Amino acid sequence: GENVEQHPSTLSVQEGDSAVIKCTYSDSASNYFPWYKQELGKGPQLIIDIRSNVGEKKDQRIAVTLNKTAKHFSLHITETQPEDSAVYFCAASIGSARQLTFGSGTQLTVLP
Amino acid sequence: EAGVAQSPRYKIIEKRQSVAFWCNPISGHATLYWYQQILGQGPKLLIQFQNNGVVDDSQLPKDRFSAERLKGVDSTLKIQPAKLEDSAVYLCASSGQGHYNEQFFGPGTRLTVL
């Protein structure tokens, strides 16, 4: 089955700096890669996703890049703000209607 | 649009007891998922329903876990008997039709087994 590895497990940045979280996946058939943000006591919330026919996608301060050959994808957050502090999860699946395999999460702390 | 509803939000039981969780997906969503999230880990899929049929339950410990989705709307997940290692947050998610539809998650039920 699919295996997703995520790192780092914790990341602290100063407000205004950029943050990068990286994931690798094992199943070359995976073609859908969402990123979720989970705040304390809440369920994960989708913040951005990318399909395998696209190399990069941007949404305001958030961007995701995908390298299918190397089977890795990354989340980039620019101009970080304290409200970006949360746990971020990457995931992979064959289409979103199939089961998601999640990474182990990254605790992002943005220091004011 | 109302989100995915789950209850209870918290549950504390002793090992060998039974427990049930309830989920109400977003109206019109045909696909419903139950995930187990152990502290410090990512969610792990337990079971996926399409309407009232099971699509994937390969990671559901069927000797103690059961789930149903009667009438293709609400769903319940049951654990009987519970073990200490079942302590986790149980997340319900739903998604609409289509190949790339977003999964919307509920707030989860935090289960503590003593």
User: Strand count, sense and closure of the main sheet of chain B?
Assistant: 7 strands, mixed
State the secondary-structure class of chain B. Answer: mainly beta
Largest interface: A-B, 26 and 25 residues
Amount of helix of chain A: under 10%
Task: Please mark out the parts of chain B with pLDDT under 50 across 5 or more consecutive residues, or reply none.
Answer: none
Number of strands of chain A: 11
- The class by helix and strand makeup of chain A works out as mainly beta
Indicate the multimeric state: heterodimer
Averaging pLDDT over every residue of chain A, what do you get? Answer: 93
Helix tally of chain A equals 0
Secondary-structure element sequence of chain B? Answer: EEEEEEEEEEE
Number of helices of chain B: 0
> Approximately what portion of the residues of chain A adopt beta-strand conformation?
over 45%
The biggest sheet of chain A, with number of strands, parallel, antiparallel or mixed sense and barrel status, is: 6 strands, mixed
Helix content of chain B: under 10%
Spell the H/E element sequence of chain A. Answer: EEEEEEEEEEE
